[in-house]
TrEMBL record:
Entry protein name: FAD-dependent oxidoreductase domain-containing protein 1
GO CC annotation, single: cytoplasm
Superkingdom of origin organism: Eukaryota
Stated role: Required for the assembly of the mitochondrial membrane respiratory chain NADH dehydrogenase (Complex I). Involved in mid-late stages of complex I assembly.
Pfam families registered for this protein in UniProt: DAO (PF01266)
Domain FAD dependent oxidoreductase: 51-157
Lineage of source species: Eukaryota, Viridiplantae, Streptophyta, Embryophyta, Tracheophyta
Length: 180
């Protein structure tokens, strides 16, 4: 996913972070999707979904995002995605619609990978044959939204409590072997 960092950006003052859950159903719904190239076969894995996030980093710079893309391990900057992030932020903060964004001009762009599982559910649980190793991964772009629930599940697993939800669907064991 892409993030755009704007140094000394005074047009927008935040006192807390803002996160739109605009791509919760990205794999099934591309209503906020853009296609990455004209040669795209319009498959959902060739599309990027944009969800507005706005926060300040530790230096006080505005961080706008974010994108969800299914394009392997590519870390290339895609200017069309950055423009879509800017346009989406403008829907939430109309004051920035009159500001020209020159992506090539001294902007910090962050690109990171978002691990996900083929079935769309994160893996949360003990690693088979390693009873003292627990993993929580594959949340993809929903990590922040699922953090509290994941933390509660992990805590219950460590303490040996039965938990409020069935842990089985999130276990790695037999999940991708076709024997589930």
């Amino acid at each position: 996913g892409h993030l755009l960092v704007l140094e000394n950006f005074d047009m927008l003052k935040l006192n807390h972070g803002i996160m739109e859950l605009g791509y919760v159903d990205h794999q099934g719904d591309n209503s906020h999707s853009i296609h990455l190239s004209s040669t795209s076969n319009k498959d959902e894995h060739d599309a990027a979904s944009i969800s507005m996030t706005a926060t300040l980093n530790t230096k006080g710079h505005l961080v706008l995002g974010s994108s969800r893309e299914f394009k392997g391990f590519s870390r290339e900057v895609d200017k069309s995605i950055l423009k879509s992030i800017w346009d989406r932020a403008g829907e939430f903060f109309p004051a920035i619609n009159n500001v020209h964004l020159d992506i090539d001009e001294d902007k910090e762009i962050r690109i990171g990978h978002r691990p996900y599982m083929p079935d769309g559910k994160p893996v949360i649980g003990f690693v088979p044959d390693m009873s003292n190793v627990l993993i929580a991964t594959g949340h993809e772009g929903s990590g922040l939204a699922l953090a509290l629930g994941t933390a509660e599940m992990v805590t219950d697993m460590i303490l040996g409590d039965p938990g409020r939800v069935d842990f089985t669907p999130f276990s790695i064991e037999n999940r991708f072997s076709g024997t589930a």
